[in-house]
Amino acid sequence: MSQVIDDDPRIIEFDVRTDEMLVNMGPQHPSTHGVLRLVLRTDGEVVSEVEPHIGYLHRCAEKIGENISARQFIPYTDRMDYLAGMNMNLGWSLAVEKLMRLQVTEKARHLRVLIAELGRIASHLVGMGAYGLDLGTFSPFLYAFREREKILNLFEEACGARLTYSYITVGGLTADLPPGWLGRCEAFLNEFEPIIREYHALLTTNAIFVKRTGGIGVLSPEMAINYGCSGPVLRGSGVDQDMRRDGEPIYTAMYDGYAFEVAVMKDGTYPRDRAYPAVPADAVLGDCWHRFFVRMLEVVQSMELIRQAIDRYSACTGSLGEPVKIAEKIPAGDVYLETECPKGQMGFYLIGNGTPKPWRVRARSSSFSNLSVLPELCHGCLIADVPAIVGSLDIVMGEIDR
Amino acid sequence: MAEYLIQTMGLPGWLTWSLLAVLSAVLILNLMAGGALVFIWAERKVSARIQDRLGPTRTGGRFGWLQSLADGIKLLAKEDLMPERADKMLFRVAPYVSFCASFAAFIGLPFAFDMVALRLNVGVFYVVAVLGLEVFGVILAGYASASKWSLFGAMREAAQVVSYEVPLGMCIVVPVMLAGTMDLVTIAEKQSGWFTNWYLFHDPFTFVVFWVYTTCAVASVNRAPFDLAEAESELVAGFHTEYSGLRWSFFYMAEYSSMFLVSGLAAILFLGGWNGPVPIASLLGLSEGSGESTGAFVRLLGLANFLGKATLGVLFMMWIRWTLPRLRIDQVMTTCLKYCTPIAAVMFAGAMTWLWVFPGGC
Amino acid sequence: MSSSVASLLPVLAAAEGGLNWQGFLFLLFAVLACSLAVAVVVADNVVRMSFYLVLSLGSTAGLFFLAGAEFVGAMQLMIYVGGTLVLLVFGVMLTAQEPFVAIKTPVRDKLLAGLVGGALLAVLLQAAVSGPAWSGSTAEGGNAVASSSGQPSATPLGMALLGVRVDGDVASGEQSPADGQVRSGYLLPFEIVSVHLLVVLVGAAYLARSKRRKSSGGQGGGASTGGMR
To answer: Which CATH number, 2.60.40, 3.30.50, 2.120.10, 1.10.287, labels domain C1-125?
Structure first.
């Protein structure tokens, strides 16, 4: 090769020779959050190009949905975003209910809010802990899992499962809460609240953490919208959108009467009715730090929603209502509904043809859209920043590959 | 001891010296291996306690004492893999290079008065020089593995060495300057008495220098937040990605013994070596030279002091590791070159001035 | 444990005849250093070369330690072995491309190198053999140095490197101030060696610099991503 170049009269000598390197990050890499494969084109430690390869966890969930009844599909939604099964159940249930024009009882509505927000906390705890892991600190991961375990205990009491719940279902919920559950939930919230400060001390305000995340992977609001990002990734860029407030009536009606403020930076400040840590000087709106911080804020927000839901739920009299039959026919027609899952806007699309089985089932994965900005964010970053950026997007491969 | 063997036992000289050399080597090797076992167990327990877990509880009794030993046996039994495209010879040699460097550095480290395998008049210099060789094994391993992640680890290690060695050297020079010698034994002896005699408390500058040294020492043994060369969330396992079984455990042992070594060096340079915070022995009127048994007692006391301080240093590193996130390679270089080096340089000048203004101490 | 190899020297020196402890170690280190040096020349892989070089230099350091010159020994480890480390990194970094990893030397170059190296070796051998006999002074002098109660000091060496000789030349038995001349010390050779190293570094960079096309500024990929370097 050198011989050819030597003979070429047009060349000049230039700099020290460096080589580009193609590196495979994953699918067995420790910090790609499951079976994601990233092909990095690097020059030394500088990444010039990232290409995500997905599909390692494809389980044909959508096709399966066309061969089983709408209610039977609930367990498959559990396995999409397996870290927030409750929220996925809710998304599908609401979509089917929208098609069937079902209205759940008031009690079921408040219980759904309660459960979905608990699920959001559990999911954000994993996202937060795993993010610490991506940045090389192990302990916050276990602190986060310790609290998540308590939420899972509550879920287990309510529905008997710790990961794949199938609790929220079409037409309501599979069971009412056991006696004493609300008290235990409140006790959990009370002991969890002061612990959030510890997370902020260990991560949010930690100088090394800020250095590692501030100004890294900056996602502009325009780009976030263009790529269809949603959830904390979108709000971390300062776009004020939350399906719980801006979604379709059937979904927002669930949160009717609930007071909450969308965790997004407006006029340079986050909703500051609480003592949050100040935004560090190194952080730029739309960077990894902001995405992380939005998640932390949403944990607090969810806690408040849960407190409100507990009050409303206990004030409700009457029954929870019965879920639909397993072989319930769904009417002809198509419906698309997006709900605010912890990872972002999770959309379900289904076409019914008058039989129990939907004619088509499709899922719009928030993680998929969030992951698609990765090549843009990683352009010119260092190798060490790649896990930091991937972690800040908080993706779940089960949802992307379905 | 040598004289005793030669004169009383009538052993020939060369045999005596060989025996003594082997004895020293075996003692140090055992210290390294045993120390690594203890420290790995301690790391498990410390990290478990920090993380709200229990750690090993069953292997070998209540506290899982034998966990490291069980791990060792597991590692022995593991398949010894080598990548097909690896540079076979270098791949095999690399762990031993790291281990030998760590081992060789122990030769110059005094554990108590007179408890040193080889008393060198340039002890500090020797220890630092030899310890630097450990990096060589890491770089060789990274290159020889024929894995891109390993190569990244090796390159990071090289970049890190270049950055931490400068401030580390500067920090070490300060106590050397105060003691006026590079002999580790003398440096420790000069800090005898109450803990106020320790170089850590000699003047405000040495106090700062100690912390700069701590930072650089953590960087030099590749511990979090400076564990760039392994960085499991970025580089899988960095330079030892392709290693398994016994070869991998050699890297592990080298890491833990280096931790002990830099802690021991810190203890001697800044924390009075084997002199306890309270001079118990001299308060009791004992000294190394006073009789056979009391001398031995004083030495053992010194040994306990030294081991205690060095172990505290190791535990400190564990605490840091399980608390802080990892820095990025450019941030490591910034920390070492843009912060630690100027600070160390200014503190060096300050300590020099202090020595000049208060020649007899203050 | 009061053993110290430094105090071991007189005992061993006293042992008469045969291969004593010191002699054995000397031979070991010397053979290692020489054979590894040959290996450096013979090997055709950059990293292996530097590995052999490190071992060879390490053995040389061992010789220094054996001679009781601990400062020089540690210096050898620190500077040469550490320096080789950097050399290795540069070697890998600069020659990472396929044609450079394995270095095939043409016969012409081998001959030339052999000639130059042989000539240098001849000069050094001649100098070594014709130097004043050391054996004469070891009987007393060696013992005296090794067993002297005062701590050996590196000060004269350091001063000499700065250009001031504070000691007399033991081997030739001269007294330095007596002949009215101030000795120049080792400053000149020291500087020459430094310049030599610089030349080597520049040469390495020259050999390894990349060649790229002159036109089209955009296609020089990676030029803009040099933030880290």
So the answer is: 1.10.287
